Amino acid sequence: AQSVSQHNHHVILSEAASLELGCNYSYGGTVNLFWYVQYPGQHLQLLLKYFSGDPLVKGIKGFEAEFIKSKFSFNLRKPSVQWSDTAEYFCAVTGPGSARQLTFGSGTQLTVLP
Amino acid sequence: ETGVTQTPRHLVMGMTNKKSLKCEQHLGHNAMYWYKQSAKKPLELMFVYNFKEQTENNSVPSRFSPECPNSSHLFLHLHTLQPEDSALYLCASSREGTGSTEAFFGQGTRLTVV
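Structure tokens for the assembled complex are given below, as produced in the milestone run.
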């Protein structure tokens, strides 16, 4: 079965600091990759997704992620975080066949200090 | 708003009670999902419906019983739950259930079993 690992459970940054959240997946076939964000008290919403093509994908609110197939990674980055980026971030993956449903990581809580 | 609405937002129930969670989407999607979100754990996929047919049941105990009367509505019937079933239950929908499109999530029902 495929799995998704997010190694950082809680990240604390000051405003304007750069962000990188790690995500690794175990599935070896063709995958679709997602980052979702959950702001306090709100629903999960999509930040960005990778299906094919350019491995560097840009999402909303200045976030981007890079798919590195050889490393089975899809790390999320933002050059300069804001206090409003405080939220929980989830990496997720789907694959073909029996792995076609979203498998989520355990999430990373990001706290940005003003 | 995501277009996926869940009711109720909060539910407290005793272990002998019977209750139901409701999910409604008006996005024209054909796939609907139930997820369980517990603290410090990855989102767990519970059930998947594609075109009103249940296509996945991830070894969920029978005290959870899903129902999908049409492609816009999804229910989760609960009976004789245990305290460890306390969690946030999320409903999601997607255009189809093959993993190649993004999922849209509701705000969840916070369930407490006492």
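The radius of gyration of chain A is 14 Å. Chain A touches chain B at residues 4, 9, 32, 34, 36, 42-46, 49, 51, 90, 92, 94-96, 99-107 (CB under 8 Å). Further analysis is deferred to the final report.
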